[in-house]
Amino acid sequence: MKRELPAREFALLIAMLTAMAAMAIDAMLPALGEIGSELGVVRENNRQLVISALFLGLALGQIVYGPLSDRFGRKPGMYIGLGLFVLGCLLSMAAWSYPVMLAGRFLQGIGAAGPRIVCLALVRDRYEGREMARVMSFIFAVFVIVPTVAPALGQVILLVSGWRAIFGALLAFAATALMWFAIRQPETLTPERRVPLSIGPLAAAVGEVGGSRRAVGYTVATGLVFGGFLGYLNSAQQIFQEQYQLGSLFPLFFAVLSLAFAAASYLNGHLVIRHGMRKLAVRSLMALCLLSAGFLVVLVQMPGEAPLWSFMAWGGAAFFCLGVVFGNVNALAMEPFGHIAGIAAALIGSFTTLLSMLLGGLIGQFYDGTLIPLVGGFAFLGLASLGAMSWAGGGRKPEQQLSAP
After folding, report:
1. Backbone phi, then psi, for 159, in 5-degree steps?
2. Secondary structure string (H, E, C) spanning 254-323
C-alpha cells in the first residue's frame, strides 16, 4: 500500500485537479468573441453559454461521482472524470457548429465534476474541523493562481494558433494531472468504510444531508454568493474587452482581481484556526454587502461610464472578501459528514453549482454595457447569503458553537 502523500504535495495535487474546471473556463474567456463569430452566434450575450454549458455539466455530474467514490473508492471516480473531460476537449476542438461546441463543453463539465467531488472527499478523508478549513484555504490559494494565468495562456494560444488549440492545451493539462494522481496518490477509502451502491444507503445519506439545517443553510449560502462570482465570469470578457476596450490586456486585469482571491485564501488559512470558520465568513460577507451596496449607489448616480480604476478597486475588495468566504462556508457544510464524504460532497457541490449557475447566468444575461447588473447582483446575493447563514446557525451542534461570532 502506498504511503500517504506529504501535506504540501497533497495540497498541490488537489489544487491542480480542482483547478481543472477553472482552467477550462478562464482559458476560454479571451476566445469567446472569436468562437461566437466563427460558429455563427448572433446575440452577444449568448457567447456566455460556452461558460454556462460547462457549469451545467459540472452541476449534474457531481451527483454521480459521490456515490461511486463512496462505493468503489476515490481513484476510479477520478479516472472516469478525467477521461470524460478529455473526450469533451476533443469534441469542442472539432466543433463545426455552436450546438456541438456547447455539447463538448457540457461533457467537459461532467468530466470536471469527478475531480471536484473526489478531491473534496480526499480532503475530508484526511482532515476535519478547522484543520480541514485551513487545508482547503491553502488548496484554494494555489487553485486561484490558475485564473491569474489561464486567460493569458488562452490569449497567447489565440494569437498563435486560434481558439481550437486552447482545447489541446486543456487536454495536456488533464493528462499531466492524471499521471501525477495515478502514480503518487494512494487510495484513501479503505474497503471497510465503503458504502454499498443500493437505494437504501443512498436514500439514507440523501435524507441525512437534506435533513441537516446546517448543511442546507451553508450550501444555499455558498450557492448564492458564488452566483455573483459566476455573473462576473460570464460578463468579464464583455466588461474588459468591449466596455473598457482593453483588448489583449484583458488577461492582465483579470489576473489582478484573481490575485485578491489568492491572497485572501492564504490569509484565511492562518486566521481560521484562531477565529473560526463562521466568524470569518460572516464578517467577510458583511463587508462584501456594504462594499457592493455603496458602489451600486455611486454607479446609479454617476453620469456616464464608471472609470476602470473604480471597478478594479471594488473588484479587488469584493473578491478578497469572497476568498475568505468560500473555503470556510464549504467546509462548514461538509464538516458533519465524514462518514459519507463522497455522497455529501456530491449533493452539496451539485446544488451549489446549479444554484450559482442559474443566478450567475441571469446576471450575465442582464449585462447591458454597464456595471449595474453585476454590482447589484453581488449586493443582493451577498445579503441573501448572510440570511442563509443566519438560518443555518440555528442548527449547529453545541460543540460547533465555539466558532460562532
Report:
1. -70, -30
2. HHHHHHHHHHHHHHHHHHHHHHCHHHHHHHHHHHHHHHHHHHHHHHHHCCCCCCHHHHHHHHHHHHHHHH
pLDDT tier, 189 (very low <50, low <70, confident <90, very high otherwise):
confident
Q: Nearest to residue 81, comparing CAs of 42, 49, 47, 121?
A: 121
Please compute the mean of the pLDDT values over residues 201-217 and round it to a whole number.
81
Please check whether residue 306 is in contact with residue 247, taking contact to mean a CB–CB distance below 8 angstroms: no
Instruction: Answer yes or no: is pLDDT of 297 > 90.
Output: yes
CA distance 244 to 117: 37
Residue 246, pLDDT above cutoff 60: yes
Q: How far apart are CA 315 and CA 152, in angstroms?
A: 19
117/350 Cα distance (integer angstroms): 9
Nearest by Cα to 9 from 187, 174, 268, 184: 184
Query: Does 397 have pLDDT greater than 60?
Result: no
Distance of CA 303 to the CA centre of its chain: 35
pLDDT higher than 80, residue 330? no
Location of C-alpha cell 467514490? 69
Distance CA 114, CA 43 (A): 32
| Interval 180-201 mean pLDDT | 79
Q: Is residue 141 within 8 Å of 132, Cβ to Cβ?
A: no
Q: Are 98 and 37 in contact (CB under 8 A)?
A: no
Domain ranges of the chain: 7-185+208-394
Burial profile 102-111: b = 16 or more Cβ within 10 angstroms, e = fewer? bbbbbbbbbb
| Topology of the domain covering 7-185+208-394 | Growth Hormone; Chain: A; (1.20.1250)
C-alpha distances (whole Å) from 377 to each of 309, 315, 361 are 20, 13, 11
DSSP letter assigned to residue 238: I
- Cβ neighbours for 282, distance < 8 A, ≥ 6 positions apart: 386, 389, 405
The pTM of this model reads: 0.79
CB atoms under 10 Å from CB of 345, counted, come to 29
pLDDT at 141: 65
User: pLDDT by residue (tens digit) across 13-62?
Assistant: 888 888 888 899 989 999 998 998 899 887 888 888 999 999 999 888 88
